[in-house]
Design brief:
Shape: globular
Number of domains: 3
Helix content: 40-55%
Strand content: 15-25%
Oligomer: single chain
Strand order of the largest sheet: 4-5-6-7-8-9-10-11
């Protein structure tokens, strides 16, 4: 096994070909190294290979002899290892450092193994503990864990295995997304896979565990579910799946899980179940995801590639479409009057391609001419700087099985950059992006990866030829929606699309987009705001844009117990569009010039620069850098600095070009003035920790009983209690003071032998009256200082006395709650601990 599997775009690749991960979970077992004896391992590996699987998922690090045996059997290994993920592992620096040391040692010992596929640095951190520690803190730790491990094995793949209760826990540095899913309903699984594809972004998505218990459902039902689940995985464009598990013989925390659980496709003595026969018939022929997609109908597709002086990338585009496995398609190449003679030379190399040369009339005209020469019922547009991936046409055809769909498209992902400048330009905002209405429908798909039915194309009248270089696809999609068509989004229909290579080319592109938007304003004035550009109904599917949006909230259920907890990402506020616009920058520049005569105007100009600088800094910090820029620290730092500069200036350059174009065309938006609210601020009400308690139970009592007893006691005492709703990161709130309230959040750690450690954190929170008083008094003090310094000093002293009084009220409001919690916990038989008990961490859960 000399070659390594790599993660490229939405799929894995091996030796330049798309590679489908077909996995099965193996163990843990009771023997040494959590493995059976070597002779049993050899028989098991032959049986796994016979099922058609190519990957084993392990939950404990294996010895080298096991990896050598896997290599001999043609199997690759996805390795995990146990660490105390079921405890508050971020509580102390020592505990976090120990996890990092263990991970570094495991990865270093296995990095050179030929059979190694990659590492899963964690598995299912419980949702209530993520809520307790904070989702951002946990994600940052996982990113740090991956970075530490990657230095030991730069060529290996890394990911974290999440599950629906922590869907939002998505490390940015992971090479692919892994989610453990146990859904027995086919419709629900299809919907959830579509959602996870968008959570994964531009990375491969793998189902880390999927299975069914035969003791409760029977072997026939297990075989049926595993069969249609693989079909759902392939149709959703996933990069692979791991079946849980190979055998009914498996151990968790040193305890054998059968006869209570029987998720294996073989029994404990390795007798194949009915599911094994299903996998044997299904998996061996599959080498890539699209190969397993069965279409109800297979329409003829015409691929239309339009080029203008694109000889540098045209050959790559033509090579990619020549290699597509779809059985019924043709390729039409339209040369839009190129002045580069090399374009004709490249076109002459491909005799199977129908090539046409027309007078230079712009991109829309070339696309319409190509549609006129097409013989297919579906028209698939591909740019000359793009390359189709794998089963691109198969996934596009799959989208049109819904007769309401008039157009479809998929992700366009930049290839690996050649240096840190290219990486920064690729990660900067403003590139061709999909706008999603939901997980499967789009408001806009870029023309570099757009398919449309001939009937829909004719009904809307094709592309508007007033658009020469950009904007035609936006206008086309809006007109399709106005005619009642749906635009489908297919994650599996992926193309590689080159971004600009230099900063100069990037800004040339952005100003071109701005001029194209001016033409769109003339056609669709109601779809543009006064200052904020296009008013999309959907969410922009672009990593740099999503990283810069704020206001995200997590649906966690009451007390954070919902089995499916979703992240609802906030959209950019009206203020974000305003402060990053060209008019805002123009006003700031004029104030800065006026600062030569009035210094306070220069201070005002500096203040106006704070919001756009802050937004650009957020974008740069979260930018998804690829290639060498993400691996080497100096290059990564330089790339992020460049992304910051591009994110700061790109909206101004694009907006200025748009405004100038609107003035020239006398076209003005008819959208509303969105000046209020200007900015979405974080909640200014400060929180102050009152107490944090650790309560131990030997008999398995968790936070549920404690919460119920605390609520009963508070209601009996007639204290006003407000329950946290499904969106809250706290359990309940007590308001005893006009100025302060107390919030409680709880979490339970799971320890061996049934031990449970429940943590309770109490925080005070200023009410809206305290916040309003703080704003008013601060404003008043500043005004008095400007008006009269002596009066300002008296006001400052009075304010100090006021805050002393509020602090006294704060203490009075918060003093009784910790005593109440302690009293309730003693009544329930819980012991109060000052520190974590010296217990050995158990093995994380492997499987359901």
């Amino acid at each position: 096994m000399p070659d390594r599997v790599s993660a490229s775009g939405k799929f894995f690749h091996l030796a330049g070909q798309q590679w489908l991960l077909k996995g099965v979970a193996y163990g843990p077992f009771a023997g040494p190294d959590a493995l059976p004896p070597p002779e049993q391992v050899e028989r098991d590996l032959r049986q796994v290979a016979g099922l058609g699987c190519n990957t084993l998922r392990l939950y404990t690090p294996p010895p080298r002899w096991f990896l050598d045996a896997c290599a001999a059997a043609g199997l690759r290994v996805l390795v995990g290892w146990p660490w105390p993920a079921h405890t508050d592992f971020l509580r102390t620096r020592r505990g976090a450092a120990e996890i990092l040391r263990t991970a570094r040692a495991v990865v270093r010992s296995l990095a050179a193994a030929p059979a190694l596929l990659g590492f899963l640095v964690g598995n299912e951190v419980p949702a209530q503990l993520v809520r307790w520690m904070g989702p951002d803190r946990v994600r940052r730790f996982l990113d740090r864990l991956i970075a530490v491990c990657r230095r030991e094995a730069p060529e290996a793949l890394f990911a974290y295995a999440s599950f629906p209760s922590t869907e939002y826990l998505n490390p940015r540095t992971a090479d692919f997304l892994v989610s453990n899913i146990y859904l027995e309903d086919r419709t629900a699984l299809v919907r959830y896979l579509a959602r996870l594809q968008n959570v994964a972004g531009d990375r491969p998505l793998v189902v880390g565990e999927f299975g069914l218990d035969t003791q409760r459902h029977g072997e026939a039902r297990q075989a049926e579910v595993l069969g249609w689940a693989w079909g759902a995985v392939l149709r959703a464009g996933l990069a692979g799946q791991v079946i849980f598990g190979f055998t009914d013989e498996w151990f968790n925390d040193g305890r054998r899980m059968d006869p209570g659980w029987a998720f294996g496709v073989t029994t404990a003595d390795r007798r194949p179940k009915e599911a094994a026969a299903v996998l044997t018939g299904l998996l061996p022929p599959l080498q890539r995801a699209g190969q397993g997609v069965r279409l109800r109908r297979m329409p003829r597709i015409t691929i239309i590639i339009c080029t203008y002086n694109g000889s540098r990338t045209l050959r790559t585009a033509l090579d990619s479409v020549q290699a597509l496995p779809y059985p019924d398609y043709e390729v039409v190449l339209v040369d839009d009057g190129s002045t580069d003679p090399e374009v004709a030379a490249v076109a002459a190399e491909y005799r199977e391609v129908r090539s046409f040369r027309i007078a230079h009339g712009g991109l829309s005209r070339a696309r319409n001419f190509g549609a006129g020469q097409a013989s297919g019922s579906l028209l698939a547009y591909l740019d000359d700087d793009a390359a189709a991936e794998g089963d691109w046409l198969t996934y596009l055809a799959l989208a049109f099985e819904d007769e309401r769909v008039g157009a479809a498209g998929g992700p366009n992902i930049p290839p690996a950059p050649g240096g840190w400048v290219e990486a920064a330009v690729a990660a900067a905002p403003g590139g061709p992006a999909v706008v999603l209405l939901n997980d499967t429908e789009a408001e806009h798909v870029p023309g570099c990866n757009l398919a449309v039915t001939r009937a829909a194309w004719e009904e809307v009248g094709g592309f508007d030829e007033r658009h020469w270089a950009a904007g035609d696809d936006v206008d086309f999609c809006w007109r399709l929606l106005e005619h009642g068509y749906k635009i489908a989004y297919q994650p599996g229909a992926m193309v590689w699309h080159e971004r600009r290579r230099t900063v100069r080319a990037y800004f040339r592109q952005q100003t071109g987009y701005g001029r194209a938007e001016a033409a769109l304003v003339a056609q669709h004035p109601h779809r543009f705001g006064k200052l904020g550009g296009a008013r999309w109904r959907g969410a922009v599917y672009e990593p740099s844009v999503r990283a810069a949006t704020g206001g995200a909230i997590i649906y966690g259920g009451v007390f954070g117990t919902a089995p499916y907890q979703f992240l609802y990402a906030g959209s950019r506020s009206a203020g974000a569009d305003v402060v990053s616009s060209a008019p805002w920058a123009l006003v700031a520049g004029l104030l800065a010039l006026a600062g030569w005569w009035q210094p306070w105007l220069a201070v005002a100009a500096a203040g106006m620069l704070v919001p756009p600088v802050w937004l650009a800094a957020r974008t740069a910090a979260a930018a998804p850098l690829a290639g060498a820029a993400a691996r080497r620290r100096p290059a990564a730092l330089a790339a992020r600095i460049l992304v910051f500069g591009l994110a700061l200036t790109q909206p101004v350059a694009r907006g200025l070009a748009r405004e100038i174009g609107c003035l020239r065309q006398r076209a003005f938006p008819r959208g509303p003035w969105r000046l209020w609210p200007l900015l979405r601020f974080e909640n200014p009400r400060r929180r102050k920790a009152v107490a944090e308690l650790a309560l131990w139970s030997d008999d398995g009592a968790d936070r549920t009983g404690l919460l119920q007893a605390m609520l009963d006691e508070l209601r009996h005492s007639q204290w006003p209690v407000r329950m946290g709703d499904e969106w809250s990161d706290w359990d309940f709130e007590v308001t005893k003071s006009f100025w302060w309230s107390v919030r409680a959040v709880t979490a339970t750690e799971f320890h061996p032998a049934g031990g449970r450690l429940t943590r309770v954190r109490l925080q005070t929170r200023a009410t809206c009256w305290t916040t309003a008083l703080a704003i008013l008094t601060t404003t008043g003090v500043l005004v008095l200082f400007v008006w009269n310094a002596s009066w300002g000093l008296w006001a400052l002293a009075s304010t100090f006395l006021l805050w002393l009084a509020l602090e006294h009220l704060h203490g009075a409001a918060a003093s009784r709650i910790p005593r109440l919690v302690l009293a309730v916990s003693r009544r329930l038989g819980l012991r109060v601990l000052n520190e974590r008990p010296p217990l050995a961490p158990g093995t994380p859960r492997a499987g359901p």
